[in-house]
Design a protein that fits this description.
Elements: H1 5-19, H2 34-53, H3 59-71, H4 80-100, H5 113-122, H6 124-133, H7 148-154, H8 157-176, H9 180-193, H10 195-221, H11 227-235, H12 239-247
Helix pairs in contact: 2-6, 2-10, 4-5, 4-8, 4-10, 5-6, 8-12, 9-10, 10-11, 11-12
Length: 253
């Protein structure tokens, strides 16, 4: 029997829906997605580190640490490993913004901008619940349909290049100043002196692990998904996702 054009279109729609549940009319249920349950475990694990593992009574030390980081950046006054790590927590949320904002429209559970903005200060503590609850958006998006900031800033190769350059500088700075004494001092901070150092390092690790889902979705949205490349970009924390932003295809106008 010969298929009609309408019948063929219906079959194609059904195939797309089965391949991408988020693109169908069915409501996406994050609690049924093992990757989202993994994000829940990461979020709870990070909270457990902050509550149970991080050293206590370090508020004064941490306040002085932040003051020095702001007033005398990269002067050698702060452990170079921690300083590179701490500044990386400004780069990673910017990368997440560039990955997530093109798929931010009509998110039904949590709006995108508030957790993204809060993540610059609170990291995965703020971003985790959004990544857990958000609906995937893998369909192509026209650049003209995006908001001004997303279209002009976060889609910009200048923005991507700045983040990549700063990430490369942070890695270079940490490597150039890495010594056994610096490593021992960082371990002492992590273990005994600074809750900020302990939680920040774990936060960066969790944000880097969770990056794969957002990056892979953005690749699908742009029609360039490659699982091996997505893993490769995420395998180099901070710098790898920045390089992806620099090399990813532009959205169609």
């Amino acid at each position: 029997m010969t298929s009609t054009p309408n019948h063929r279109r219906s079959n194609a729609t059904a195939i797309r829906a089965s391949a991408d549940p988020a693109g169908s009319d069915a409501t996406y249920a994050p609690w049924q997605d093992p990757t989202r349950l993994g994000l829940v475990a990461l979020w709870l694990g990070l909270g457990s580190v902050a509550a149970l593992v991080a050293p206590k009574g370090t508020a004064d030390f941490d306040a002085g640490l932040v003051t020095t980081l702001v007033s005398a950046p990269f002067s050698g006054a702060v452990n170079p490993i921690f300083e590179a790590l701490f500044n990386s927590l400004g780069v990673v949320p910017a990368v997440y913004a560039a990955l997530l904002l093109p798929g931010a429209k009509d998110q039904p559970r949590i709006p995108t901008v508030p957790p993204l903005a809060a993540s610059f200060a609170l990291g995965f503590f703020a971003l985790g619940p959004y990544l857990i609850a958000r609906e995937p958006r893998t369909e192509p998006v026209a650049r003209s349909s995006l908001g001004w900031a997303t279209r002009t800033i976060f889609e910009s190769k200048v923005f991507a290049g700045f983040n990549a350059a700063f990430a490369a500088f942070l890695i270079t700075y940490a490597a150039a100043n890495f010594t056994s004494d610096a490593a021992e001092a960082f371990v002492a901070m992590w273990r005994d002196q600074s809750a900020l150092a302990c939680v920040s390092s774990c936060d960066l690790a969790v944000l880097s692990i969770a990056m794969y889902g957002a990056l892979a979705e953005d690749m699908r949205r742009r029609g360039c998904y490659d699982g091996a490349k997505a893993v490769a970009f995420c395998a180099v924390p901070v710098l790898g996702p920045c390089v992806y932003l620099l090399t990813r295809p532009l959205l169609p106008e």
